[in-house]
Amino acid sequence: MINVTKTFLPPQEEYNAILKRAWYAGWITNRGALVVELEEKLKDYLKVPNIIATTNGTLPLQIAIKALGLSGEIITTPFSYVATTSTLVWEGCIPVFVDIHPKYLTIDETKIEAAITPKTTAILATHVFGNPCAVEEIEIIAKKHNLKIIYDAAHCFGVTYKKKSIFEYGDISTCSFHATKVFHTGEGGALFTDSDELNDKLFYHHNFGHYGPEVFQGIGINAKMSELQAAMGLAVFPYMKTILETRKGVVELYKNNLKSLGVLKLRKGTQWNYSYYPVLFDNETQLLSIQKLLNKEGVFPRRYFYPSLNLLPYADKKPCPISENISLRVLCLPLFHDLDDNNVLKICNIINRGL
Ligand SMILES: *Cc1c(COP(=O)(O)O)cnc(C)c1O
């Protein structure tokens, strides 16, 4: 069976050797040596001034909304994973959907201003499939209207835009280190901000508000990454180069063998991370028939992202024709470190024959 992704598992003895350190220390959470070491390594690798490791990639979104004191309406994208929207509603904010660009698949920055009302407080957009939003244009709009910017950068581990980590754009960025993502800690994630002041706030928010054992700086929640998660991250980390190179190989092979399908257009200036391989069919009927052919051969791509989030039962259902149309036609093909060439070619053949 070939799934859309397969978790990279480091050699077990390497993971155990790192875990042993937690055993000897008798310390398996509360920001032990492993979490601190992982944060230092990632800060260096990603070239970012601040990072806070978290227990998943969803709590950081909630914490970002809290830390920026957001309420009212938040402009967001309908084309993302459900967490982008559900977090807003969970935090008592109203998601206001702005349609996406048909090629980049990120929020259409030219349509943002029309959606701003006196109740708008922020923009929460997703760098979908690791493809950056129009970050510079969005920043201009946000400044003009005094709005905060959060980027759901769950897909973006290692992505740079104009030679800068994508995590440095916006007020706060979040990432996911879930087992299905390019870099992972089983479950996990991170918060990023260039502002030291905001970073302090994010830090106490992610740890109950603690400022030392007996003093509380403010309200908080528990979003700490455990030592067990950090051990997985430290064991996976040395393989990032291999993971990215092998994924790149798969992407090149798809590109060269699937000629008649629409593909993601990367924004110029992007150093990408080969996180997903979305293809666009002509219509949903075609997608479903190809999906069926693939399933019959044991290949299980995923409809990332379907449905369009403006159609969620708790969303306003305001039409977003481009996002709705794309989500009916998009399929993410299997892409992972040890997907071999023969299997990629087999997948291409099934698709090409079915078209
Ligand atoms: C994976 C993902 C999340 C959630 O991350 P978790 O680590 O699973 O909590 C949020 N947003 C997007 C766009 C994602 O793909």
What does this structure look like?
Keywords: Aminotransferase, Pyridoxal phosphate, Transferase. The active site is at residue 181. The protein is of the alpha/beta class. It has 2 domains: 3-238, 3-Layer(aba) Sandwich (Aspartate Aminotransferase, domain 2), CATH 3.40.640.10; 239-354, Aspartate Aminotransferase, domain 1. 37% of the residues lie in helices and 15% in strands. It has 11 helices and 15 strands. It has helices at residues 12-25, 33-46, 59-67, 82-90, 135-145, 196-205, 227-236, 240-257, 284-296, 321-329, 341-354, and strands at 2-3, 52-54, 73-76, 94-97, 120-126, 148-152, 160-161, 164-165, 172-176, 189-192, 262-263, 270-271, 277-280, 299-300, 330-333. The strands form 4 sheets. Strands 2-10-9-6-5-3-4 form a 7-stranded mixed β-sheet, sandwiched between helices. Strands 8-7-12 form a 3-stranded antiparallel β-sheet, with no helix packed on it. Strands 11-13-15 form a 3-stranded antiparallel β-sheet. It is globular and about 65 Å long. The model has no long low-confidence stretch (mean pLDDT 97). The structure holds pyridoxal-5'-phosphate. The site of pyridoxal-5'-phosphate has 14 residues, from helix 4.
Summarize the structure.
With 355 residues, the protein is of the alpha/beta class. It is 37% helix and 15% strand. Pyridoxal-5'-phosphate is lined by residues 56-58, 80-81, 83-84, 126, 152, 154-155, 176, 178, 189.
